[in-house]
Amino acid sequence: MTGSARSSGGLDDRRKRLLFRCWHRGTREMDLILGRFADATIAGLSDQELGELERLIEVPDPDLYAALTGDRVLPAEYATALFDRVRAFRAVDPNA
Fold it and tell me: What pTM was estimated for this model as a whole?
């Protein structure tokens, strides 16, 4: 997979921006993890969850990847229920 399989049609501007940013992280591994998560969930995220995702994607790729793989603890301000959902999504998606 080279990018989003989900169309941004029908999404509001905030969700479109987040979907794009999740697929354009800077490292391919994080593109695949966050991009696939966004493809699957972006339409149904609440405003609070969108804010959590906006903050989470500000974490540098090496730090976020290390937290997702369990090699590093994420700072408390980013360790939200949404982060747990991303980590759980990655665990059940063998392609992520």
Answer: 0.84
